[in-house]
Amino acid sequence: MTNEVTRESKRRWDLFAEDYAKRTSKFGDLHKEVLLTPTILSLLEGVEGQKILDAGCGEGYFSRLLAEKGAYVTAVDFSARMLDIARERTSNDAAIDYRQADLEDLNELESSLFDQVMSNMAIQDVVHLDAVLGEVHRVLKPGGTFIFSILHPCFVTPESGWHRDEQGNGLHWKTDHYFEEGQFEQRFGTKEKVFGFHRTLTTYINALFSTGFTLETLIEPAPSEENLEKYPDFKEDLRAPDFMILKVRKAY
């Protein structure tokens, strides 16, 4: 069953890859540009000369940012089409090694290889969280950090969404079925919605601890006043957070 789900998830991401890539600028799609990219960059412990794994790289925008800042980047994704687009968008002299692999099985990568691992909006797309965390822990050097963003599990649930009035104004944000963990269809895709896997906050935190990580930082990114002046629609993000970013460390 797991292999079937993974294969179907890859198929849907391959179908969605080109449409998704059209939304992506140098700093990602709009939510990534405003909320996620700057926060993750601020949490990285230096970039120049660092060996960094971009786990679930998509079309590669974050890998390119890291390479521009002097990192040696390995970028992994399970979607062949996403990687095709990433390579098309990357100059030949960029220090990026793109590889197709499932995050649950990074057997081609050596243990204790990376100074840091980052993952931007990919961990909620994996079938087996424990397997992914185990592989990230394995490929990190002792003392290395793992920084990742996900949909906020307390607010973005399979049945969450805005209740709006006739004019489209948000009345309130509804969450439901929080404790019903498992596969669901996210809100975007080309013809078929891509899969996500809802987990409670307890599941995420306990999985990190049991893998051997220590939690250092948890951020629920919110738009700044400057962001709101440029993108007024982001005022809704001050009412309920869409995302959560965690920084954890592999013990020595």
From TrEMBL:
Residue ranges the record marks as coiled coil: none
Keywords per UniProt: Methyltransferase, S-adenosyl-L-methionine, Transferase
Entry-linked SUPFAM superfamilies: S-adenosyl-L-methionine-dependent methyltransferases
Single GO biological process annotation from the record: methylation
GO molecular function annotations of the record: S-adenosylmethionine-dependent methyltransferase activity
Gene3D superfamilies named in the record: Vaccinia Virus protein VP39
Database matches in CDD domains: AdoMet_MTases
Xref: Pfam families: Methyltransf_11 (PF08241)
Domain Methyltransferase type stretches: 53-148
Identification of the protein by name: Methyltransferase domain-containing protein
Organism: Alkalibacterium pelagium
